[in-house]
Automatic annotation (TrEMBL):
Transmembrane segments: none annotated. Residues 5-154 form the N-acetyltransferase domain. InterPro entries: Acyl_CoA_acyltransferase, Bact_Acetyltransf, GNAT_dom. This is Ribosomal protein S18 acetylase RimI. Keywords: Acyltransferase, Ribonucleoprotein, Ribosomal protein, Transferase.
C-alpha cells in the first residue's frame, strides 16, 4: 500500500466512476470515439462479461480516483485500456499503483500478449508504461491499432528480467 491507496474490484456501483474519469481525460485531450462511448456506457457487457476485468484505485479522503480495464481481445490476448486518474489525485502515485496491480492481474489471467494503444500526446502515461515494462511494438500497432483514430502508439508488456 502506497499513500493509503487500495485496489477495488469492479462492481456496478462503480460504473459511473469508470465512465466519468475516463470521459474527463479523453475529452480533455481528444474526443470520445464511438468505441469509447460503447465501452464506457456498458462496462459490464463490454469488459467484464467477455472475460475482462476492471480495477479501481481508491485514495483516502478522495474515494475512487482511477480505473483501468483489461479487455479480452482473443483467447489469451488482453488490452490494457481506459486507464485514468483524477487530477485531484495527481502526485499520489495512484496511476503507478493501479498499473502495477493491473499488470499483476493480467499475469494471473495468463495474458499473452498484454498490450495497450495510446497516443504520443499522452507522454506522462507512456513514460509510466515504459517504467513498468511496456515496450513499443509495431506488430501490436499493425494488429490492433486501427480500432482508434487517435492511436499512434502501441506497446506490449514484456516481463522485466528478475533483478
Amino acid at each position: 500500500m502506497i499513500n493509503g491507496l487500495v485496489i477495488r474490484e469492479f462492481e456496478d456501483a462503480l460504473a459511473q466512476d469508470f465512465h466519468d474519469i475516463n470521459a474527463e481525460w479523453i475529452n480533455s485531450m481528444f474526443r470520445l470515439e464511438a468505441t469509447d462511448r460503447e465501452v464506457l456506457q456498458n462496462p459490464r457487457e463490454r469488459i467484464i462479461a467477455p472475460g475482462g476485468q476492471i480495477l479501481f484505485v481508491e485514495a483516502p479522503d478522495l474515494g475512487i480516483v482511477g480505473p483501468c480495464a483489461l479487455q479480452k481481445t482473443g483467447p489469451t490476448s488482453f488490452e490494457l485500456t481506459k486507464m485514468g486518474v483524477r487530477e485531484s489525485a495527481r502526485g499520489l502515485k495512484a496511476g503507478e499503483f493501479l498499473l502495477a496491480a493491473v499488470i499483476e492481474r493480467a499475469n494471473d489471467l495468463g495474458a499473452d500478449p498484454l498490450y495497450l494503444l495510446t497516443n504520443a500526446k499522452c507522454a506522462a502515461a507512456i513514460h509510466l508504461y515504459e517504467k513498468l515494462g511496456f515496450q513499443h511494438d509495431a506488430e501490436i500497432m499493425a494488429e490492433y491499432g486501427a480500432r482508434y483514430e487517435r492511436c499512434n502508439v502501441a506497446m506490449r508488456y514484456v516481463d522485466p528480467p528478475a533483478a
